[in-house]
Every structure is written in C-alpha cells, then in structure tokens.
Amino acid sequence: MPRRAARLTLPKKKPTNKKPKLAGGDPAAPTDEEWERMVEYGSFIVRDEEGDEHTFKRGDVAMVLPHGVSPGDPIEPYDYWVAKIREVRLRTQQDVWTKIQWYWSGQEVHGAVKSFDDKACGRYERIFSDHFDYVSTSAFDAVTPMKKLNDSDIEQPHIPRGVFYTRYTFEYRARNIQPKPGLTTCLCLRPYAPDDPAPLSLMHFCPRPACRRWFHARCLLRAGLGSEDPDPARRRRLLLASPDVEGVVEGLGEGGGEEEAEGVNRRCGWREGTGMGARGGGGVTVEVQGGLDAVVVVGVGVGVGTRGRRSFEDEDPEEDEEEAVEPDSDADAESDDMRLAALPRHLVHIAEQPIVRGAAFPAGGVAGNVAAVVRARRMVYAALRGEEVPAGWEEELGVGVEEAVVEVEVPSDEEEEEDGEGDGEEGKARGKAREKVKGKAKGRMKAKKRERTESVRALLCPDCGGAI
Fold it and tell me: Does pLDDT of 145 surpass 50?
C-alpha cells in the first residue's frame, strides 16, 4: 500500500545553503545514500517571523533565498534563485530537505555557454535546467508562478511584467539549449529581448499559417519593409491577416486595389514570379531583393488584388491600364464598413491591432497581445459569417482592452535624441515643442501618448507581404 504523503510545519531560520553548484552544493546536505533512507513527505509549511504560514508542495516552483541573504533582508524579486520542488524528505524533526531542479538565470547560462546572449534575457526570465540539488527548507521564501513563453503559440497567454517566465531548457553537461535562441525569429536570427525599451526593438508577428514568425521593427525597416498605407487601409489589411486560412477572409472584401499591390512590390524591390493573385486564384511568389538573400515571399496578393503573371521590368504601364478591369473597391469597402460597424466597437478595434510585443508596449506584458488579437479576429470573422458575437467576448479575450491595444512608450532619452536632430530653426522649433509638451497638464500627456500609439510603425511581413 503506498505511503500517504505527510506535511511538516517548521520555523523559518537563516538559510545555510550555498550557491548551487554541480560539483558540490550545500556541504550540510544529505548524501544520495542518506537521502534514500530519509522519510518522504508531500509538503511542508514554513512559519515566518510574523507567524504567517507558507505552504510548499511537491511540484511547486519556489523562490529561494540566495546565499548570504537572510529572511527580512531587502531583495528585489528578480534576484531570488528559483527552483522546482521535486521531493521533500525529513532527516530529523527540525532538519527537512528538498530535492529541487534549478531554473538558471541568463547570466548563469552565459557562464556555462559563452555563446548564449544573456542580454536578450529578461530580469524575470529563467532557463529550466537539468541541474538537481538538495536544498534546506529554511531557504525557501515563497511559491511563485512560472509562465511559459512560446514564440510560435498564437494562443500565448498574457504574461504580466514582474512575473517569472521561461522559454528555454538547458542541459548542462551537453551544453544544449532548446529551442535554439533566435533560430526561427526575425531576419537577423537574434532572439527577443523582453526588457529592451527601444520602440524599434518591438517585435511584430505575422499570424498567417504559413508564417507564424516574429520580426524586429528595426530589421523590417532596414529591409525596406515599411508600409505607406493610410491608416484605414492598414487597419483593414491587419484585420485580413487570418491566423487560420491563407488568402481572402470569408465575409470581407479583398482589402485593396491594384495600385496598392504594385506600390508594395516596387517600394521593397520585389519582382513577381509566375502565379495568380488573390483575384486570380492562387498565391503570388515574390523574390525579395536588396539585402534579404534567398528569402522568398509567398502570397503578396493576399488581401490585395493582383493581375496574375507580370514582370515590372517589361510591362508597359499605359497599355496595362487600358486593358485592366478595375473592381468596384469603393462599394466593397463601404459594405465592409457597414457590417463591421454593427459589431462591438472595442472588439473590432482589437481585431485591427498589429500583433506586437516588447518593453516599449508595457501593457502587453512580456508576451504581447497575440492571443487577444487572434481571438478578436476569429470572433469578427465568425460574426461576418452570420454567427453571434459571444455575450462574454471580453472574458474570452483573456485580457482587457488596455492590454490588447498597442500603446508605445518612447523613452525620454530617445525623445531628446529625436528632438535634438537637425540644426537651425527646425531643430530649435522641435526643442521648443518638447518644452511646451513637458509643461502641459497630465491630460495633454495622455493625448500625446495616444498620438504616438496611432503612429506605430506600419510594417510588412517578409514571408507573405501582408501587413503586420
């Protein structure tokens, strides 16, 4: 008959464990042979100096006081060691130990694998290792949540700032980190740096099934993948970026005309190959030139009308315009606007947001707004097919409107740099304008923030050419 796990209560005392090391650990810890003879328990309770009880169970992730730090000493939450409790065993009545599995910080992994970029790790980020250790229960401070960050998950739950999270695993002896940092991220193959406050370090996500990839705003702009769409056209193209289907979304117009598609291609130095566009039935294959070696873009015609086979180098624009049959895009757009206007305003507004993550978008937390925007788009598509919008659609998004709508905060030093650019009267005018803003009331500052939000970079996905 299996032994029922018990629970222990003991006072919290000064920790005796030292910095966890593979070649040792706490010298007072039991040996492996001694551990096998110790009595097993399912949980333990630590009573602090105020008399409050803290329960720790097998499977909990807990914060451990670092070596040299006593209970009550001031310490930032992100400076704690973090571990997963695997077993709890009793050596004597007041000597209880745990077998734990460590979560390493980015700096610790960098110490073992020099090629690992610890600067791309957040302060609350931990890497789950295969390093086990024995730690005294007197060193435990509190149970903490540990969130999972997954780059390819379009249902990625919201991760608030100030919460521990993990995205990598680390095998110490093999020096193996999985998944490989940056391997499937951006054109630069550099990983997401969650604490980088620069607006151009924001990452934009393309949710289309053939893409599912994050890109740095800076890298897309360097590659010439900025979009010149006016705001209404951009919102519509973002809404058309479906997480479930390639091509035109059922219930919505195709979201653009011939000139828009040509403008996107010419701005980015793209040349179309063979194939048919969204109106011709099939995907457009586009070769990206100008610094993006061997990157192929498929489906630029999604949500944008194209005329089938074309080479911009050989075409006669005047002759082409005479032969073209233009669709009644104004009527389609008006019909779409009327149907969207019948839906909850905030739901549509969220569905039209770019999917973004980064420290410059603090309301999005660590993971950004990907899950909320994806769910909102699915609800809008379903409503346009004739289905009812769920009565509790706000709860189904998983976050509030504030966490889903992109508002970018520009650091003060970056504002100064921008205001200081240029000489002469123009530079002085910018400096005066900045001083004027600083002297305004709080309400005006909020208005300025909204203006920055409306000017979030309009970018294009290098894989499919759609708005992101």
Answer: yes
Strand partners, 286: 272, 297
**What's the CA gap between 387 and 411, in Å, rounded?**
43
Amino acid symbol at 267: R
**Predicted confidence band of residue 131 (pLDDT cuts 50, 70, 90):** very high
Q: How far apart are CA 184 and CA 214, in angstroms?
A: 8
Measured CA to CA, the distance from residue 468 to residue 239 in angstroms comes to 10
pTM exceeding 0.90: no
Are 39 and 47 in contact by the 8 Å Cβ rule? The answer is no
29 — phi, psi (to 5°)?
A: -70, 155
468 within 8 A of 206, measured Cβ to Cβ: yes
Give the confidence band of 233 by pLDDT, cuts at 50, 70, 90: confident
Runs of H (alpha helix) within 303-404 = 317-323, 329-341, 345-351, 370-384, 393-397, 401-404
Mean pLDDT of 87-91: 96
Task: Tell me the CA distances in angstroms from 332 to 149, 277, 328, 380, one per residue in order.
Answer: 40, 18, 7, 17
- Taken in order of first residue, the domains within the chain and their CATH numbers are 7-178 (2.30.30.490), 199-404 (no CATH)
Which residues make beta-bridge pairs with 64? 81, 140
- Give how far Cα 369 sits from Cα of 138, 194, 203, 443, Å: 39, 14, 11, 25
Q: How wide is the angle at C-alpha 248 spanned by C-alphas 244 and 249, nearest 5°?
A: 55
Query: In the block, which residue shows the tokens 């550099």?
Result: 190
Please report, rounded to a whole number, the percentage of residues in the chain having pLDDT higher than 70.
66
What is the amino acid identity at position 252? L
Question: Would the pLDDT of 266 be above 50?
Answer: no
HSE of 172, CA atoms in CB hemisphere, 13 A = 14
- Asked if 379 and 393 count as a contact pair (C-beta separation under 8 A), the reply is yes
112 CB neighbour count, 10 Å cutoff: 16
Residue 204's SS3 state is strand
Handedness of CA 258, 263, 268, 271 (dihedral sign): positive
Phi, psi of 280 (to 5 degrees): -100, -10
Least confident of 32-41, 91-100, 246-255, 349-358: 246-255
Angle (CA) 263-269-274 rounded to 5° is 85
SS3 content of the chain, % helix, strand, coil (to 5): 30, 20, 50
Q: Cα dist. 90→3, 17, 40, 53 in Å?
A: 14, 16, 6, 19
